[in-house]
């Protein structure tokens, strides 16, 4: 008979509120093999990519578990350095990462980058084309006009937004996979990989865990979760979807195995001016906040794809977003509107349990 401890990991990082995760960690085992009885939970957390990253590794060997944890965190740090578009540290900081070099050479010359950066950009461009630009990694100038990523945020004028939008166009990004170069042909253009880098880092961290022989693990990085394998008892991991209007509650519970769940919400990064809330999810076609949804959760095997799509669907809105995601194989979504209507893809019927809390209703 298995005995479990239920650990409720409710994580908050400044104004960032992330998914509630319910982890079942096996601590004893009666009447079963020695291997199962010796499984242990090795966990750690670090602040990386502007969020709290927590990794749980479950295995029988402490040395193996600790080494796997370090490998996972090292991956996050590597991708953070490559994709961060803001200078790190000061005079003693390491050499600039790929995105800093690409943005600094806009209109001048192609920049040689890592294979990881090429892959991130190519996947982003794929979904940019597929969504008609609802996801656009050249959104950097618009994000700057709102002050996101800086110390002070403010509402830009329409003229400022228009000027920034003139520099936004994913179709202009030139990628040469053979030479591993990236070029922004127009001065002032800048990449912002904030909507994809964390997902890619998680996929690479999961790959590192698998290569280390880890069969059971859970990674949580500020709204992005990956469930590696199953719980030790063979059951799926259970991950809660937060109530976007009450951080103390969850509205549904997902069952996950070898898949990711990524949530984007209008409450994650925002500021208030004259009684109006302005969040960080910007529609690339208008340069202003997408407001037809308040939260999106995407479930897929690839955290990279789920990360991109959680933003793209938010921009597309409930009708276009649901129509789009229903056509994507192996991808499911939960979309929540300001009216508390919840749209769910058909494939989630046996994977999702609603709590009935918060007054949310399933859209017919």
Brief summary:
The protein has 364 residues and is an alpha+beta fold.
Number of strands: 23
Stretches where pLDDT is under 50 for at least 5 consecutive residues are: 1-36
Q: How far apart, in Å, are the first and last alpha carbons?
A: 42 Å
Which word captures the global form? globular
Helix and strand content put the structural class at alpha+beta
* Main sheet characteristics: 9 strands, mixed
Strand order of the largest sheet: 5-6-10-11-14-19-20-21-23
Radius of gyration: 21 Å
How much of the sequence is in beta strands?
25-35%
Treating each run of at least 4 consecutive H or I residues as one helix, how many helices?
Answer: 8
Helix content: 25-40%
Task: Calculate the mean pLDDT score and round it.
Answer: 89
Structure description:
By secondary structure, the protein is α+β, with helices and mostly antiparallel strands. 28% of the residues lie in helices and 32% in strands. It has helices at residues 34-37, 62-83, 98-104, 115-130, 140-146, 158-165, 197-211, 303-325; strands at residues 2-9, 12-13, 16-17, 21-29, 40-48, 51-59, 111-112, 174-176, 181-183, 216-221, 224-228, 237-243, 246-256, 259-265, 270-273, 276-279, 282-283, 288-289, 295-300, 332-336, 341-344, 352-354, 361-362. A nine-stranded mixed sheet has the order 5-6-10-11-14-19-20-21-23, covered by helices on one side. A five-stranded antiparallel sheet has the order 1-4-12-13-22, with no helix packed on it. The chain has a three-stranded antiparallel sheet with strand order 7-9-8, with helices on one face. A hairpin with a 2-residue loop joins strand 5 (40-48) and strand 6 (51-59).
């Amino acid at each position: 008979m298995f005995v479990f401890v239920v650990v409720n990991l409710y994580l908050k990082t400044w104004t960032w509120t992330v998914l509630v995760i319910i982890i079942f960690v096996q601590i004893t085992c009666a009447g079963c093999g020695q291997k199962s009885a010796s499984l242990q939970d090795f966990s750690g957390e670090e602040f990386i990519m502007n969020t709290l990253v927590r990794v749980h590794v479950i295995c029988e060997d402490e040395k193996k578990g600790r080494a796997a944890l370090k490998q996972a965190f090292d991956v996050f740090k590597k991708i953070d350095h490559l994709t961060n578009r803001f200078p790190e540290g000061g005079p003693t900081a390491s050499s600039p990462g790929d995105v800093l070099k690409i943005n600094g050479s806009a209109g001048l010359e192609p920049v040689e980058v890592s294979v990881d950066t090429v892959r991130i950009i190519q996947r982003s461009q794929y979904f940019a084309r597929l969504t008609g630009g609802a996801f656009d990694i050249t959104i950097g100038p618009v994000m700057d006009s709102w002050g996101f990523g800086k110390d002070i945020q403010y509402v830009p004028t329409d003229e400022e937004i228009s000027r920034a939008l003139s520099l936004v166009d994913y179709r202009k990004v030139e990628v040469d996979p053979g030479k591993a170069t990236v070029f922004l042909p127009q001065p002032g253009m800048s990449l912002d990989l904030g909507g994809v880098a964390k997902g890619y880092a998680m996929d690479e961290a999961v790959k590192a865990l698998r290569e280390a022989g880890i069969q059971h693990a859970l990674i949580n990085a500020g709204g992005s979760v990956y469930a590696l394998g199953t719980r030790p008892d063979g059951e799926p991991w259970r991950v809660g979807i937060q109530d976007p209007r009450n951080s103390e509650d969850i509205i549904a519970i997902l069952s996950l195995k070898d898949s990711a769940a990524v949530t984007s919400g209008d409450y994650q990064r925002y500021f208030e001016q004259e009684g109006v809330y302005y969040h960080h999810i910007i529609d690339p076609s208008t340069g202003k906040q997408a407001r037809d949804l308040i939260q999106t959760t995407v479930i897929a095997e690839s955290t990279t794809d789920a990360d991109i799509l959680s933003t793209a669907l938010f921009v597309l809105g409930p009708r276009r977003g649901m129509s789009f995601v229903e056509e994507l194989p192996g991808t499911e979504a939960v979309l929540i509107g300001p009216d508390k209507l919840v749209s769910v893809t058909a494939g989630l019927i046996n994977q999702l349990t609603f709590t009935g809390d918060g007054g949310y209703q399933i859209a017919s």
